[in-house]
Amino acid sequence: MAEKKVTKIGVLTSGGDAPGMNAAIRAVVRTGLYYGLEMFGVMRGYSGMIEDDIVPMNSRSVANIIQRGGTILKTARSAEFFELEGRKKAYENLKKRGIDGLVIIGGDGSFKGAQKFANEFDIPCIGLPGTIDKDIAGSDFTIGFDTAVNTAVEAIDKIRDTADAHDRLFIVEVMGRDAGYIALHSGIATGAENILIPETKTDIEAIIASLTEKEKRKKLVNLVVVAEGDKFGGGNEIGAILKNRLPNADIRVCILGHIQRGGSPSCLDRLIASRMGFASVECLLQGTHNVMVGIMNNKLHYTPLDNAVKAKQKISDDWLRIVKILAS
Length: 328
Fold this sequence. Notes:
Layout: E1 8-13, H1 21-34, E2 38-42, H2 45-50, E3 54-57, H3 84-97, E4 101-106, H4 108-120, E5 125-129, H5 145-166, E6 169-174, H6 181-189, E7 194-196, H7 204-216, E8 222-227, H8 235-245, E9 251-255, H9 267-286, E10 291-296, E11 299-304, H10 305-308, H11 317-326
Parallel strand pairs: 1-2, 1-4, 4-5, 5-10, 6-8, 6-9, 7-8
Antiparallel strand pairs: 2-3, 10-11
């Protein structure tokens, strides 16, 4: 039997917001309209599907948004969607509008929801990796990571100026509850003396020994970049330990927080979001269903949703060696 052709597509953003989500929404909507499809925006992620908060979208709906951070569709995390009853409600709301394809822009949790939904009901789903953490396997970059890490770099550069003026040790906490990519990239780019990430065990004694040795040779300006999910603790915890063990050092803690999520997306984030959004509609039209669209080696790459929710982007040993050598 021939596969039913997709005619109406819904697009939603789910989980944490990421710069470039609007660029992805724009690409999905305009590509769908180009192919003569009806397009719908689902407000507040899976919550909007359950609550029937779904709106038609046209070309003007996505005008002047490519440069904006956040998401015009809003976003939320929905515990109800992880119950079968919630997914049934969502399905019924889509079916009554005739929506027969979904594009989900989000991270790992969003893809788990899409995987369950696609396996249970006859609405194909395409995932676009929208997360600042860059922790999803199957794509060299995720939508939002480049902007977030550049925001962190800009902030850390400014902090180093103050550190230099006062001969201070600064501990800077960046986002990354389960993944250390923002800490790794921003730490290397700003010349941090130490980078602490969830993927590796923090050797606090080695850090203290290193900072003590630097203190002896009068290197008083130091930066420690720590991911919030570091197993030894975030910035405040590390700061308290170092203040206790290095009483002569002038130590300050700075937590960058949600500033990393906002702001106008970088050129790279706009480009990959546009490319992925375009590809998601073509996937639905060509019968490539229930995959995540990524970009690897500058080529579109498709990962089955079942695999995308299991695999994590791993930090290579090469990066860890670079950190060790360049910070010495």
